[in-house]
Design a protein that fits this description.
single chain; six-stranded mixed β-sheet; 4 helices
Length: 866
């Protein structure tokens, strides 16, 4: 019997009617089920058909998060509180109509659905009608019209009873508010009249505006005309979501200087939250690490507006805060306050000549400096030449912020040693936290040379000086690089006062002295460190050496040197790991590959970075293109693949290669582009359970119902880190013939119904698998042997056919020996929900999975004579 042919009384209430961008973010905290003998609804409004009177509509309300605080039923303007398991009795046609069911939790979640109970009448004539749309004429809030349409606005319906997904965003745009309010869309239904035999469409009618034309144009029966009359008024109730405005801010004590911030969305909370959803969020001081000079002073929390259980406050000791999030939460600001201390830095530098002649006077300077932002008093100063105290330097000094003090020291090189050692130190006062103690001490060496013999006036000597440049052929943009200039005296005589020059793109190099003295056959090397410019340019290096005035160079061709360095892009792509290393047979699985980008190059989608994943043993190959990574960062690449059936554990090799086609040619090395991981596909075997007459306590279990991870994205021209989460929700219950009586006799069987769902904010939901395994553990098997459940549809599980059942029912049985007046507790594991952040699993013990056992099947044995 198809829904489109029935007579209906329509009043549709949709909770969770949101735009697509919100609709798929998460499930409801509550589950409301309503069912007739012909139809059932779960967390959605719709139609429940009955074909006889009296009829029963069963209602079952459970929660996935929090505790249920109440359930209410509304019909014909009357509302009353009901139990979570309730039966509505439909005695006649007048009892049909909309029944609105509302559930609430202690966490503030509210879910409402409407079950429209209709009486079905089989169609027998060729001319039929189907409900195809609703014409909306006005929108009300709190029984007041807030919008009237000059022309009715059409909303398409599916299966004659639910709003088409394509229309959901249209309704949200009409309301245009994110305030958690309830809005009622009022209008009438639209029907299409057609021939059952030929499919010809005779017309489309608004059941209110076109009512007279509709009922007179076709040979309808009186019941059908009455049905059209009930369709002249229809309503849809829309519950607006709420924009979650919760932020953490890291700042100074006045909240004027901001050091960093995180929003609720950065923590995985959706921008818009449905009234039937709740979540929670935590902020901690360590979420944004600050340097050591930032001293934590406390946490402040502000709510706008206050009230309703939300009060402002602060604590000097609290370093984290957790907050339940529901649609009633006001805007919340959490301030992690810090006192930024002043930077202290004392340093000393010695400037001295490289060489002196023995017996000559020489001069050097010692500079003491306070680079900090505060004064430093009583700072000790020390200086020594060859271990002797320098008397010109005072024992201490009071420094103002930024002040330096330079002492010019003059000495005579009257030593027989070849080196004069200089040493200086600036002390750190008590209570002074120096930011860089490494520069509190300085040393220097001055080489001592013997004077050359005087030469006759006007005479010159022959010499040979040469210069070389040792430089890399390529450096990388905006990175430091170095090159070496080597000046050599190729003769056997001492040279005094040779001229040295070096330049980068025509600009002189200050770190190379303009003159130098050379011993016989001596070379002097100068390493120059500087920074490269833009990629694609060329750096021109030049160097020159000139002989002293009293020397003639016999080989001037080697007095000059030049070199060119190309400036390119520097990067190194690598694969760092592949996880996990173990998989089960016959599953859709996720392998997560961590890749890295070391260097100064950003890789946007246009750079075409690819990752190739393959498993040789399975002849499997997967490719992921357009991987993005900012310079010196990493990212995660997830690959979905299917494991085969195996007769025994099968060893496999996971291989991931970045830049497999070598289209990116400027890598420093390709040696780390491939990563190999040994892995295994496990053969899944379930042992035959062995019954034991003991009644054990269910053991504790550990699970992982929620995972979080980070991935990099390129959005609006910049790289951003997105934090993702996935959470497994499981609803499960047992049912049996005497459940409404509150007990089951031992020896009888029970069914199980398991429904799983995954809440996530991941922007690639296709890389999150369904729940693929569900197992129960029973007391008669000591909770040790798993009994696998059958997946009869997506994320839904029941018992498999029981071979010990006479009719192979999908049941398990309470052992006949099970003690009276004892709870029979079932443990359930739902797992193998694979995500890029790991595998989700959830255990449920008891609750809706336990049965009170009273009496046994033997009391029902009617074959025993009295």
């Amino acid at each position: 019997m198809k829904r489109k042919y029935i007579l209906i009384i329509v009043f549709i209430l949709l909770c969770g009617l949101f735009p697509a961008r919100v609709f798929a973010l998460a499930d409801s905290d509550l589950i409301i089920r309503a069912a007739s003998a012909e139809d059932k609804l779960e967390n959605s409004s719709g139609i429940l058909a009955v074909d006889q009177f009296p009829a029963r509509i069963t209602v079952n309300v459970t929660v996935q998060t929090g505790s249920l605080t109440g359930v209410w039923l509304e019909h014909n303007g009357q509302s009353r509180e009901i139990t979570p398991d309730y039966a509505i009795v439909i005695n006649d046609k007048e009892s049909c109509g909309p029944y609105t069911i509302t559930g609430r939790t202690d966490r503030g979640a509210v879910l409402t659905i409407t079950a429209n109970v209709v009486f079905e009448v089989k169609a027998v004539y060729d001319i039929r009608y189907r409900t195809v749309a609703m014409n909306v004429k006005e929108i009300d809030q709190n029984e007041k019209a807030i919008e009237n349409f000059d022309e009715p606005q059409r909303i398409e319906l599916e299966n004659a009873n639910t709003v088409a997904p394509s229309e959901q965003e249209k309704i949200a745009d009409w309301i245009g508010k994110n305030d958690g309010g309830t809005y009622t869309l009022k209008g009438s239904l639209v029907v299409e009249i057609h021939s059952l035999a030929t499919g010809k469409i005779y017309g489309i009618y608004d059941t209110d505006k076109d009512f007279e034309k509709l009922v007179r144009s076709f040979p309808w029966t009186n019941p059908t005309k009455a049905a059209f009359a009930t369709m002249r008024k229809a309503e849809i109730t829309y519950q607006a979501p709420v924009k979650i405005n919760v932020d953490g801010t890291w700042c100074d004590e006045s909240k004027q200087e901001i050091y960093g911030s995180l929003s609720a969305q950065d923590k995985g909370v959706p921008v818009l939250l449905k009234p039937c959803q709740t979540t929670d969020i935590s902020f901690a001081k360590e979420d944004i690490p600050l340097p050591s000079e930032y001293i934590y002073t406390g946490l402040e929390w502000d709510y706008t507006p206050e009230g309703g259980g939300y009060a402002d406050g602060q604590s000097p000791d609290q370093t984290s805060i957790s907050q339940d999030i529901n649609y009633q939460i006001p805007a919340a600001k959490y301030y992690f306050k810090f006192d930024k201390q002043d930077i202290h830095n004392l340093s000393v530098v010695i400037n001295a000549p490289e060489t002196v002649y023995r017996g000559d006077k020489y001069t050097f300077t010692v500079t003491y400096k306070n680079s900090g932002t505060q004064a430093a008093n009583g700072v000790s100063l020390k200086g020594k030449t060859d271990g002797k105290q320098i008397e010109e330097i005072p024992a201490s000094w009071d420094f103002q912020a930024g002040e330096s003090k330079t002492y010019i020291i003059e000495r005579l090189a009257d030593t027989s040693n070849d080196v004069i050692n200089l040493w200086a130190n600036i002390g750190i006062p008590d209570g002074y936290n120096d930011a860089n103690p490494a520069d509190n001490t300085a040393t220097a060496e001055i080489k001592v040379q013997d004077k050359p013999e005087d030469k006759p006036p006007g005479s010159t000597e022959s010499c040979d000086l040469k210069v070389e440049i040792k430089a890399p052929a390529e450096v990388y943009e905006q990175e430091e690089y170095s090159f070496t200039v080597i000046y050599t005296n190729c003769t056997d005589t001492v040279l005094t006062g040779a001229s040295l020059e070096a330049a980068i793109d025509g600009r002189g190099v200050d770190s190379i002295p303009s003159q130098a003295d050379f011993k016989a056959k001596e070379s002097k090397s100068f390493q120059v460190k500087t920074k490269a410019g833009e990629k694609g340019t060329t750096i021109h290096l030049t160097a020159k050496v000139s002989p002293p005035v009293d020397c003639t160079d016999t080989n001037p061709d080697n007095n000059r040197a030049a070199a060119d360095i190309k400036v390119g892009e520097r990067y190194d792509l690598d694969v760092q790991r592949i996880t996990p290393a173990a998989y089960k047979e016959n599953q859709s699985v996720i392998s997560t590959i961590k890749v890295g980008n070391t260097g100064s190059t950003d890789f946007t989608p246009g750079e075409k970075v690819s990752v190739l994943f393959n498993i040789p043993e399975l002849s499997l190959q997967k490719r992921v293109d357009a991987v993005v990574m900012a310079q010196d960062t990493w990212n995660v690449v997830a690959v979905k693949w299917n494991t085969p059936s195996v007769q025994a554990d099968k060893n496999i090799t996971l291989i991931a290669t970045i830049n497999p086609d070598k289209t990116l040619t400027s890598e420093t090395t390709a040696a780390n582009n491939t990563y190999t991981q040994k892995a295994v596909i496990k053969n899944v075997i379930y042992d035959e359970p062995e019954e034991n007459i003991a009644v054990p306590v269910p053991p504790p279990r550990s699970d992982q119902p929620r995972v979080t991870w980070q991935e990099q994205r390129y959005e609006n021209g910049k790289f951003v880190w997105r934090q993702f989460y996935a959470e497994l929700k499981v609803n499960a219950y047992l049912y049996y013939d005497t459940k409404d009586k509150g007990y089951l006799k031992s020896g009888y069987g029970f069914f199980i119904n398991v429904t799983a769902s995954v809440n996530t904010n991941y922007d690639k939901p296709e890389l999150i698998t369904d729940a693929q395994t569900a197992e129960v553990y029973l007391p008669q098997y000591l909770y040790e042997t798993a009994i696998p459940l059958l997946s009869d549809s997506k994320n839904h599980f029941t018992f498999q056919e029981n071979p010990s059942s006479p009719f192979r029912y999908k049941k398990q049985y309470v052992p006949v020996w099970f003690p009276d007046n004892t709870e029979y507790i079932v443990q359930l594991l739902v797992t193998d929900v694979h995500t890029p952040g790991g595998t989700l699993s959830k255990w449920i013990t008891g609750g809706d999975l336990q049965i009170f056992v009273s009496d046994s099947m033997y009391s029902d044995d009617v074959t025993t004579a009295e």
